[in-house]
Amino acid sequence: MGKMLENKVVIITGAGSGMGRAMALLFATEGAKVIVSDINTARVDNVVKEILSKGETATGIVTNVAKEEDVTKMIDAAIKNYGALDILVNNAGVMDDFSPVAEVSNELWNKVIGVNLNGPFYACRLAVQQMLKQGKGIIINVSSIGGLNGARAGTAYTSSKHALIGLTKNLGYMYAAKGIRCNAIAPGGVNTNIMDGVNANKAGLDIISKGMATNPRFGEASEIAELALFLASDKSSNVNGAVIVADGGWTAY
After folding, report:
1. 66 and 160 in contact (C-beta within 8 Å)?
2. Where are the domains of the chain?
3. CB atoms within 10 A of CB 46
4. What is the pLDDT of residues 5-51, one digit of tens each?
5. Reduced to 3 states, what is the DSSP secondary structure of residue 144?
6. CB within 8 Å of 166: residues ≥ 6 apart
7. How confident is the model at residue 79 (pLDDT cuts 50, 70, 90)?
């Protein structure tokens, strides 16, 4: 059987760890040429090394997706190195500190919106321009069940992930006739390092924590990567503008 992403050029943001790393490794195994993008240089180098050690194809680029010039360089790297951009995965994300709106600082708001919403917007804008030239392309935005429900994080994260779903649906419909698909994944709790360095707002966390007991289980990064692979492949050719929840049943409660 042929590989699912044979010779496809893929950008994955936040590919240095967690879900992004799992996607990068899986997509490379399936024949993709992967641009490994992350803000952490050491992590970028490690993932690229791991992919190359298996005889697969990858290029690393250090990117702060909140900076438009970094995103431009990232998109340019795909086109310069491999001549195309077939798949964009906007996976990079930061958590907030669970603050309710009255306690959200401008600094926190701007940081979370910068990474979780502005970054995907900058990347989508440029990626679509390239995909229109090619006549096809696929975009996957990693949102969250926090983009569908109000009590999985604080105000900033919840707002950013809801907005990312709006971007996904609008883009998917606007360009459907042009051969471009855009879908969102909404993971529940996943075992990653997104909580590293979070200094939680106690009042906000106490309220959010009340619902944690209803979560049947945490997912693994590899499980989200398998879903992303499906959405990145032709097997999902009729799936567009959709939000696929992968939360182990948490929001079914």
Report:
1. no
2. 9-247
3. 17
4. 999 999 999 999 999 999 999 999 999 999 999 999 999 999 999 99
5. coil
6. none
7. very high
pTM, rounded to two decimals: 0.97
Choices 3.30.450.20, 3.90.1150.10, 3.40.50.720, 3.40.309.10: CATH for 9-247 = 3.40.50.720
Which residues is 34 bridged to in the sheet? 10, 58
Cβ atoms within 10 Å, residue 212: 11
Helices (H), 61-182: 68-82, 106-113, 119-134, 155-174
Q: What is the pLDDT of residues 62-73, one digit of tens each?
A: 999 999 999 999
Residue 92 has pLDDT above 80, yes or no: yes
Neighbour-count burial of 214, counting CB atoms closer than 10 A to its CB (0-12 exposed, 13-18 middle, 19+ buried): exposed
The set of long-range contacts for 67-73, using a CB threshold of 8 Å and a minimum separation of 24, is 68/118, 68/122, 71/119, 71/122, 71/123, 71/126, 72/122, 72/126
Return the active site residues.
Answer: 157
Sign of torsion over alpha carbons 104, 107, 108, 111: positive
Spatial neighbors of 213 by CB under 8 A, at least 6 apart, are none
